[in-house]
Write a structure and sequence with these properties.
Blueprint: H1 10-43, H2 45-81, H3 85-120, H4 125-140, H5 142-157, H6 162-186, H7 190-215, H8 230-261, H9 266-282, H10 284-302, H11 306-333, H12 335-339, H13 350-366, H14 368-383, H15 388-412, H16 414-439
Helix pairs in contact: 1-2, 1-6, 1-7, 1-9, 1-10, 1-11, 2-3, 2-4, 2-5, 2-8, 2-9, 2-10, 3-4, 3-5, 3-8, 4-7, 5-7, 6-7, 8-15, 8-16, 9-13, 10-11, 10-14, 11-13, 11-14, 13-16, 14-16, 15-16
């Protein structure tokens, strides 16, 4: 099921490889959304707001982890493209060592700081306990999330985007069943939703690991591959750390915005939370094409095929813009129907929640093309080791979102909250596009730039 992306028509390869990733991300967002749907319908508006308010903080931690695992896998994709089996195995071993350390570090830090963080972002007292009940279980299960992300990134690096999808579908269905059972029949409340998510991710990760061991002999590592090498670790970290920081910088901006939003009360929080879940679901193709570009460009860069890198970027841009227009249409036409999935028809404040979500989706949807192209250029630059401008684009996004959070609500109220995201997207997309067209012509695949297993 692996795929060599250094040969064949770039557009066809990118589209074919993107389908399993798109479906996988849909299911991943789906079972995240199911948490909110079941919580909102069975436990009410406050519980929905409590789960929704964890989103930015959860993204701060999990986004950094995703950035790290994706960054380590860039080296793995380059090694696979270079057709050097020993280099490939050493990269996988380094993946395992670095991610094991990350799992311990982030679990300890996130559990220690969770209450402080939610106090700093003005979490309303009436939902503070519910918020901590949910997020502390999610943080305790960081190892489960990291296991699945690591295994799936390694599989995608060698061109297998189907296996992660199969196990993600299975775990998504399991999560839905456990969500309903644990919330409705055990009295665990939001804790039940968190436990269902962690268990489902853990099982998905274990199954992915089993397939790697059984199916792919070229990915099996032995004790000799686990020799620590500072230079080789640095090679992975030079790409992974900026990718992790880029995700976290984005998350910090969202947290700042969440702090401004929290002043508008539970109904607006719940409406924005529901709108954000809908946005993540209908714009899932953006991140999916980013994953495709990271692996496609990584393999071709490792194979010294910059001509294929350039043609692949054009194909990826055309595909992602097409999907952005579809997502825009859905956000503009069906906001109430999609938001209604999260709500009990008889709950109080329904109309206020619907109005807040509708406004958010209408404003965000118009600017989806800017959001979508970010992932093409950012992941392309990261896959060839040019991590500075993707990181700086994240800084621009953070500054724009933070400035908007402190200023726009003064003049426009809740509408200012909704405008902050699109302004931040443009602030990231413009420098990324400029950086790509300036950097790519200068890339020379000299012996100094070509990676090796030495």
């Amino acid at each position: 099921m692996k795929q060599d992306m250094t040969v064949g028509n770039p557009a066809k390869i990118i589209f074919k490889f993107s389908i399993p990733i798109l479906l996988g991300n849909l299911f991943q967002n789906f079972y995240s959304m199911v948490d909110s749907v079941i919580v909102g319908r069975l436990l009410g508006t406050n519980a929905l707001a409590a789960v929704g308010i964890t989103g930015p903080v959860n993204f701060l931690v999990m986004g950094f982890i995703l950035g790290l695992t994706s960054g380590y896998a860039v080296i793995t994709a380059q090694a696979f493209g270079s057709k050097d089996p020993e280099y490939l195995k050493r990269s996988i071993a380094m993946n395992i060592m670095l991610n094991t350390f990350s799992a311990v570090l982030f679990t300890v830090l996130s559990l220690s700081l969770s209450r402080l963080i939610f106090r700093l972002i003005n979490t309303p007292d009436e939902i503070m306990d519910l918020t901590l009940d949910y997020i502390n279980i999610i943080f305790a299960g960081i190892s489960a999330t990291l296991l699945y992300n690591t295994c799936s990134c390694i599989l995608r690096a060698i061109g297998d985007s189907k296996t992660p999808l199969y196990f993600l579908i299975f775990s998504s269905v399991l999560n839905i069943v456990l969500d309903y059972v644990l919330i409705k029949y055990t009295g665990l409340g939001v804790k039940g939703a968190a436990l269902a998510t962690v268990f489902s991710q853990a099982l998905s990760g274990v199954l992915c690991l089993f397939v790697i061991i059984v199916r792919y002999k070229e990915l099996r590592v032995s004790r000799r591959h686990f020799r620590w090498n500072d230079a080789f670790a640095a090679q992975h970290l030079r790409i992974a750390l900026p990718m992790g920081f880029q995700f976290s910088i984005t998350a910090i901006g969202v947290i700042v915005l969440q702090g401004a939003l929290n002043r508008f009360g539970p109904a607006s929080i719940a409406g924005q939370a529901a709108g954000s879940k809908v946005e993540q679901l209908i714009s899932v193709a953006a991140g999916s094409f980013g994953v495709v570009m990271a692996n496609y460009v990584g393999q071709n860069y490792g194979a010294k095929r910059m001509d294929r890198v350039k043609s692949g970027v054009w194909a990826g841009t055309a595909l992602t813009l097409t999907f952005s227009l579809i997502a825009m249409a859905i956000a503009l036409i069906f906001p109430d129907q999609l938001t209604g999935l999260f709500m009990d028809a008889g709950a109080e404040n329904n109309e206020a929640v619907l109005a807040a979500s509708r406004e958010y989706l209408h404003i965000a949807g118009i600017f989806f093309p800017a959001l979508f192209v970010i992932f093409i250029y950012r992941n392309t630059l990261q896959a060839i080791g040019r991590t500075f401008w993707p990181l700086m684009a994240g800084v621009f996004e953070l500054v724009a979102r933070s400035v908007c959070a402190f200023t726009l609500p003064i003049w426009f109220g809740y509408t200012g909250i909704c405008m902050a995201g699109p302004i931040a997207w443009f602030s990231a997309a413009i420098p990324l596009g400029i950086a790509y067209f300036v950097i790519i012509p200068k890339v020379k695949l000299s012996s100094q730039e070509t990676l090796s297993a030495s």
